[in-house]
Amino acid sequence: MTDPNHPNHPNHLSDPIDPNHPDHLSEPMSPPHPYYEELPFLNPREEAVRFTVRYGDDRRPPGRPGVLARRATLGAGWPVLQFRLTASAQADPQAYALLEREVSAAVAIERRYGPEKFGAVFARVVGFDLTAPEPFVLYRLPGGRPLTEWTGRLGPEEQERIIGQLSLAVRLLEEAELVHRAVGPDTVRWDGAHVRLCEPFAALRAGEEREPFGGAPWASPEQRAGLGAADPRDDLWSVAQLGYYLLSGRPARGEGPPGDLGDYRRLAALGQSGLFSPRAAERPRPAELMRLLNVPDPLAATVGAADPLARWHAQYDTQLARKRVAFGGDRPPEADWPADAVPDAASDPRSSRTTLIGRIFGGGEDPFHPAGPAAPSEPLPRPSARSRMCPHCLLPVEYDERLLVTIDAKGNRIPLDLSGERRPAHVADALRKAYHLCPHTAEGDEEHELPVPYLTNGEPLTVALVGSSSVGKTHLLAAMLGEIELGGLAPYGLRCRPLNPEAHRTYLRERVQSLQQGRQLGRTGQQTFARFADGLLVSAGGGAPRPVVFFDLAGEDLAQDGEVARFLMGVDAFVFVVDPLRALRLPALDPVRDQSGLRRRDLGDEAFATVLDRIPRQRGGLVAAPAALAVNKSDLVRFEPSVDRWLGRALPGRFDPAEARDESRDAYAFLAHHASAAWLKPFDDCANCSLHFVAATGGQARGDRFPHGVRPRRVLAPLLSLFAMCGLLPGAEPMEGNVR
Prior knowledge:
Helix content: 25-40%
Mean pLDDT: 83
Shape: elongated
Number of helices: 20
Number of strands: 24
Radius of gyration: 30 Å
Strand content: 15-25%
Distance between the termini: 67 Å
Structural class: alpha+beta
Largest sheet: 7 strands, mixed
């Protein structure tokens, strides 16, 4: 069979598309199909390469809406297969995400198994470009023919080899934490010696929520329904169905063990193992199936193999132990404790407030000096029951109806008199939108005010984003609040309302909506007075709402030890934002650095050092305020194994402290390996600091727009960790994050 357009040809995709179809090219070209073009792309190691290319005709591959496929010849004669996302399909926000997920899976498989002989069981990726006007991925041409063409032509030994090699493929995918989900007789090829799975266009991370995909009998009942979490044993269901299909010559019903399974003696052991069970939990693991089939496991020798980041994982564990001891968690035996290492109780000007450390350790009492609590060096007046600490000037504000105002469109403060209003509902509605002047404005200072709900609800939580200019703080905060507006905190039992409705609407309109529409946000301007960007009322489990306010200052303001940043002394929690372009010693980032004009800095972030030097310290010289270190723009390094493990996953539906700690450990090791120690200063200096991989936009801007839209990744992870540390998550007791 030599005709590539014949329906049964092994590389046939589907009917060709008319050359005049608008999906052929993103822009009109003359002539429509140049015989030779240049094609730049990244290989699986993210090295930039460029080839002359000659294209074949476009075809629509089955099961991949919005994607066109065509053969291409690179250079003097390297045949490849290209799958690209058409311009018309990019209006669907999920289409790009599916291609990106496929590329991530293909690159992960290639990096892990490409050099190995057994890697031939997978489609081999050649390269990709996810930033092109029509993003694409290139694969080597597949060998062999689909199993549908081998029906009735395979002997018992070949059938056993096919099932054995498929079980090996699933075992390899399991080790890479992937579920293929598209294993069937038309997607598995056989060349007489080896099987080959098709491209991982439907792959999911193991443990992610199943998405409905596939049909009976090849996809498991749970996968077809989209129930539960993706499991490597979903693919073993497909292997079982293929085994039955090869022996019987017909597909099963796909609801459980076939009724005539007992008629096939060679399937008896597989049936008894539970391989045909409709529930993944009742099927054997891939390694168990390989043992049943007497198939050697090439990964068995790698069990307990050296962790490439072992040194830095161990360093993370050591740092945690150090901070536990310094902060009073585990005191070593008295005889072994060096006299000069016993920390003095450090003063904290916020210690009169009900702080996280006070809640955990009983009012800040130092276990190394139990005779009596140390007095703070600069005590602040303790607010009364109806007052709150002003986050700007760090002085208590007593609620006083004479200081109520509203703010008009021009910014004028208009006194609000509610003394004559007798309708409680109207009073409550007016107060919801009103402000309270701060009485502590000194002469020459900027007058400031607080939303009334800040004073009339539970203990406030102030969160400051820290980082130099252009690290993405503004985009990250907008992405966070956008996810919250879309209900991102609801699965965790948190209800969110605006702290001030009008200010919140303005922030959503000017920041969040602009970002979601693919526009790059302008840089945060320098200020003469620190004002918070937005605020929420967050309630957990039916409890009293707590005001949560977010500060986003210009990097220049944070890097200078000036008066505008004096509010930092009273901030309750911090998000330190790391920019990979400045921090990481990865050559793959050099082209992006050249385009953006940014340079790597071994001395760390200036804003980190300035802010950490200003925040009060407590026991062991550590900062008591909880912190999160967010590696923003992680999409730039998404194919690095440590990053891919986390950025490729959606956040779980409930907060899991163990998973948060695992991510922190991986992120610490990744930064310690690829950046200087200065970038880990927030972790070193803060008693409680989690680390996270996040992406506020999911891509790089061109001009003032993100050409493929904005796709935030895991942006709520730092906030959830801070909430857990502060006891704001229902069901999660107040925790210290990493110091336990």
